[in-house]
Amino acid sequence: MARRNPRRAAFTAFGLALACVTLSPQARLGAAQANRSQAARAPSPQAPPNYRAMLDRQCVTCHNDRVKTAGLALDVLDPNNVAAAPEVWEKVVRKVRVGMMPPQGAPPLDPASRQSLVAHLATALDANAASHPDPGRPQVHRLNRAEYANAVRDLLDLGIDPAALLPADDSAYGFDNVADVLGLSPVLLERYMSAAGKVSALAVGDPDIGVSGETFRVRQDQSQDRQVDGLPVGTVGGMASRVTLPLDGEYVIQPRLFRTNLGAMRGLEYAQQIEILVDGARVHLASFGGDDDFKASLKNPTLAGDDVDNRGRVRLKLAAGPHEIGVAFAYDDFGAGQARLNELSEVPAHFVKFDMGLIRGIDLASERKQKVVGDLVRLVIDLGSVPLAEGVETEAEAEVCRLMGFKLVQGYLTGKPVAVDEPTVAPSGAKARA
Fold first, then answer.
1. Among residues 325, 294, 296, which one has the least CA distance to residue 312?
2. 3-state secondary structure of 317
3. How much is the pLDDT for 41?
4. 331 versus 433: which is more confidently predicted?
């Protein structure tokens, strides 16, 4: 086996490398010539299509301002400004895209021109729609129950509770006035007819209307130890409801207290009062609870509960029309009724109204009486309630109440509860005894 000469092998490799270096300029020259010839053969970039000329050639013969075939004139419209007549160009796109235009017998558009024209118009239409969104007019739909109540209020000046007359409406996208989901089944139509009959009877009166009743329920998660909006100062819990009475007549208002599943009424171990109001005026005040009622409930909770409910029942004459009826627990007449200190410790009241028997003539009362009332006011404040003085008739009484710590006063001097330091309660220089 012949041995390779290392020097010859190295020389050969060097010669090959030198040959490569020698040939590389020629290779570059050949590549440059090839690129030039290829560039010479490449087509030059085309100018953008002239859509105006395309329409004049293919469409304007029939669709011009003089002939107006199918009521369409394209010679007065600019294909580069589709925003001026988007509805017309939408029709053009639909017809040209499916090959309906140009019609048979007319020179056809070649596929490339057709595709280019449709793409141009569609892109311009999409851009115009995105910059000028127009959802269109709302569809005709039936009134939902909120709209129905508003219509009754506007037309008849009559407030109604639509939830008591009509079922809840379906909703879509968080709204209950979407036409697509506001259907009208035969059963729902009957409910609307029934509601219309009741509304008509309320609006014009119906002497032949029968005896009926309506129940209002307090939500079980509603606090019963704070004043409810719409109810007077000195009350806690309860509820206020607006009703429209159909006729002048006698009406029965019957509050019922919550009972457990076993029929027992809770809270009877404490003496309390329940107050019924019509249009802000008290019409009934009933006392319940305490030792006697609590012992009776232990013997027979059902009979004891029925007896308590009957005490709150009141029958009175009311005029037809809208009224606001309220029922609440009364922390009223503090110092002269059922409102006692142990109740305040168990169920905190927002307001505590002091009886007018304690307040009237307080500026001339004995030192002992003023001290008792002042101590009670401070106690009520310490318990987190707002003390209110009832029966304030003179500025001297108001000033003494202010010095005692009362926050609110009401009576002949002010008419309605006002802050004791308001300008309507002017100080007179009277002094409270320590």
1. 325
2. strand
3. 56
4. 331
User: What's the token pair of residue 397?
Assistant: 């009484």
Q: Which amino acid is at 422?
A: E
Token pair 């309320």 in the structure block, residue: 202
DSSP summary character for residue 251: E
Question: Which pLDDT value is given to residue 24?
Answer: 46
- Using one digit for the tens of pLDDT, what is the confidence trace for 1-14? 444 444 444 433 33
Q: Residue type for 153, please?
A: R
What is the spatial distance between Cα 205 and Cα 28, in angstroms, rounded to a whole number? 107
Answer yes or no: are the C-beta atoms of 82 and 124 closer than 8 Å: yes
Least confident of 23-27, 162-166, 277-281, 374-378: 23-27
**Which token pair is 53?**
């000329």
- What kind and span of H or E run contains 41? helix 6-41
Burial of 13 (0-12, 13-18, 19+ CB in 10 A): exposed
**Rounded Cα gap, residues 321 and 31, in angstroms:** 102
Task: Parse the chain into domains and list their residue ranges.
Answer: 51-129, 145-202, 237-326, 341-419
Q: Which residues contact 30 (CB under 8 A, 6 or more apart)?
A: none
Res. 215: pLDDT tops 60: yes
Contact 213, 244 (CB under 8 A): no
Q: How far apart are CA 96 and CA 104, in angstroms?
A: 12
Using alpha carbons, list the distances in angstroms from residue 330 to 126, 224, 259, 304: 67, 11, 20, 21
- pLDDT for the residue 424: 55
301-312 tens-digit pLDDT: 999 999 999 999
Asked whether the bond before 102 is cis by omega within 30 degrees of 0, the reply is: yes
- 45, amino acid identity: P
